[in-house]
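Re: the request from the purification team.
They wanted to know what the chain is likely to look like in 3D before they choose a buffer screen. I agreed to run a prediction and write the result into the notebook, where they can find it.
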Amino acid sequence: IRYNIFRNTALNSAITNGGRAINCSAPDNAIYNNVIISSGEDGITATGGCRNVKIYNNTLYKNKRYGINLNMDASGGIKNNIIYLSGSSAIANTCGGTLTLSNNFTANPLFVDVENGKFSLQATSPAIGMGAITGTTSETVAAPVAPSSLQALAR
């Protein structure tokens, strides 16, 4: 699941699985370079059966409950995500599976203009340079993409 923009996913909507923008419950998924804004519940949920998931380089803003919710034996890597203003916490990890959490940024990233949907980073953003090289190849996930390059897709 990559290069998507999710906005205002509603709680109890059949389309969005209870307000979650992305719900992963199958093995070997890659979720990367998405922008998720104001989901009715979690931005991304990885649950039972979601083994070897890669959640890399996503921007999650103002999700009602968790930015990323990991539960029921999910396993994999959660890296280089910007998760800001989630209702309960940025990342909920109650899965019991083996997870690598690294270089996820949860402080104010200083987006350019959230009111107008511009989630690129200001020049003075403390998030700049905080990501790690994921060692990705074409078989795994793509290199990081700046959220500003997704803005054209939203129009």
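For the purification team: Residues 137-146, 149-155 have pLDDT under 50 and may be disordered.
Please add any questions underneath this entry.
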